Amino acid sequence: MASNSILADEHILQLLGDGTNSELSDLSDEDDEYFQSTEFDCLLNNFDDEDFNLLLDEDVNDKETEIVPVSTEPRCQTQNQALKSITVDKITEIEETNNTVTNETIETNTSSLEYIEKCNIRWKRQPFVPPNIVLNKPIVHMYPNSIPTPLDYFLKYFPESEYENMANYTNTYAEQIGRLNWKPTNSKEIKIFVGIHLYMGVLNFPRIRMYWEQKSRINTIADNMTRNRFFELRFCYHVIDNNTIPTNNIDRFIKVRPLYDLLKKRCNELPVEKNICVDEQMVPFKGKLSVKQYMRGKPNPWGIKLYLLCGENGLVYNFLIYQGSTTEVKQDIQKKYGLGSAVVLHLTDMLGKNQHFLYMDNFFTSFNLLHALQHKKIFAAGTIRVNRFVNPPFLNDKVLSKMGRGTTFELSSDIPNSNIGLVKWYDNKPVSLGSNFITSGTPDEVSRYCKKEKRYISINFITNQWEVSTNMTN
After folding, report:
1. What angle do helix axes 257-269 and 160-176 make, rounded to 10 degrees?
2. Please, is 292 exposed, middle or buried when counting C-beta atoms within 10 Å of its C-beta (0-12, 13-18, 19+)?
3. If exposure means fewest CB atoms within 10 Å of the residue's CB, which of 53, 88, 105, 393 is most exposed?
4. What is the per-residue DSSP string for 277-343?
């Protein structure tokens, strides 16, 4: 039987607790969740970048800042001059502050990067003044008089000596697992084995056994290696000795690291073009792998993600494989700049000063990245996420739409030793771009279809947008 005794005051206070738990908290999206200090510290220490990787690939909805109308006129190009006089002439000046900009310097192996805190990033509504760019003369490279064979090119990436190592490690692994009736392989057979895999990648039959079956037999493959020997080598193939893997290993690709290093070494030796870009690329893969990614909109959305530094001709000059929290970027740089910017700084560390124009998308671009590249004499431009630039005071989208398609609005940084420009260009929707060497430039004219007038019209097309879109798609 339930007790009807009256609760003492002390018991009532004990049941009420300290007020941190509330039955109403679940009904509000604005209330902060309560964590005990030890639990919160544990969450911070065990946070893994992989958990939010897919979210990083999504576009961020940027918040626009409403502008209080006043007097200073920035550069603004539009087809509708009447609307321009109503809006642009009434833009207020940003309040000047007397706060001293306190920056932080991060030491790296190759250089020191200056980091500007968000509270010190300020903007002025004035046209961007581009730097005087005089690129260094490119290094003259000697090229062969005749075009080498495809095999010659391939052996530059994977030289002859490596096939001997592959054969040795494959034999070692077969002995370690006690493979019955194992016939030791050699470098010549490993070459055939690698070549068969490359050929299979071109033909792409649905099943491997089909290359040896009578109806679908491929003589180049079947005549050089039997089916059973191929599967035997495939089972034992290794490029390292498993016994050399350290117990505290954090490299998730250590078993293919020698191949990765060979490919990267040769890419780093190639002469780099003037116009380059950084972007993501997927290596198609649907097997079991902890760092497998899904990227919506890619031709092969499932696979292993790489960050590439490429040129206009499609050549890869540097790359970095994504492996979650153990991705090979400097942790102090990533903590300050974010993953995207840390990747760009890592990939461009091999570049010479005053030689290149770099283009990227809004996953990578940030204020401090453009600032760091400016001091490294790398001229960079890219689309931006406005919230990474401390919500600069652009014109509102509605104002730009009333001013007509082709309207641009510029801002420039108001920080000592930092020359960063932003531009917002309006077509059917606004596009925001940032750069340390160019914004609107000299506008070109492009043809766009107008639904309202049911005809093609000419609108202003900014140089920055043209350069970014051109170099990002090459």
Report:
1. 170
2. middle
3. 105
4. EEEEEEEE--SS-TT-EE-TTSSS-EEEEEEEEEETTS-EEEEEE--GGG-SS-HHHHHHH-HHHHH
Give the model's pLDDT for residue 163: 96
- Specify the residue for token string 């900014």: 462
> In one letter, which amino acid is 255?
K
DSSP line for 378-397: -EEEEE--GGGGT---PPPH
Q: Compute CA 135 distance to the chain's CA centroid, rounded to the nearest angstrom.
A: 26
The 3-state DSSP class for residue 448 equals strand
2 half-sphere exposure, CB direction, 13 A CA radius: 2
> What's the pLDDT score for residue 451?
76
Q: What is the amino acid identity at position 133?
A: I
How far is 77 from 459, CA to CA, in rounded Å? 10
Give me 93's structure tokens. 């000046």
Contact 402, 87 (CB under 8 A): yes
Contact call for residues 452 and 398 (beta carbons, < 8 A): no
Q: Which residues pair with 275 in a beta bridge?
A: 357
Q: Which residues of 204-220 are buried (b: 16+ CB within 10 A; e: fewer)?
A: eeeeeeebbeeeeebee
Please tell me the distance from the alpha carbon of residue 91 to that of residue 89, in angstroms, as a whole number: 6
- CA–CA distance, 273 with 359 (Å, rounded to integer): 13
Neighbouring C-beta atoms of residue 133, cutoff 10 Å: 11
Q: Which long-range contacts (CB under 8 A, 24 or more apart) does 330-337 make?
A: 330/108, 332/106, 333/106, 333/108, 333/113, 336/104, 336/106, 336/115, 336/368, 337/115, 337/366, 337/368, 337/369, 337/372
What local confidence, expressed as pLDDT, does residue 319 receive?
97
Below-70 pLDDT ranges, the chain = 1-111, 463-474
What are the angstrom distances between the C-alpha of 95 and each of 68, 100, 121?
A: 12, 15, 13
> Helical H runs in 2-114?
9-16, 37-45, 53-57, 81-87
Cβ atoms of 335 and 261 within 8 Å: the answer is: no
pLDDT value, residue 271: 92
Query: What is the structure's pLDDT at 4?
Result: 55
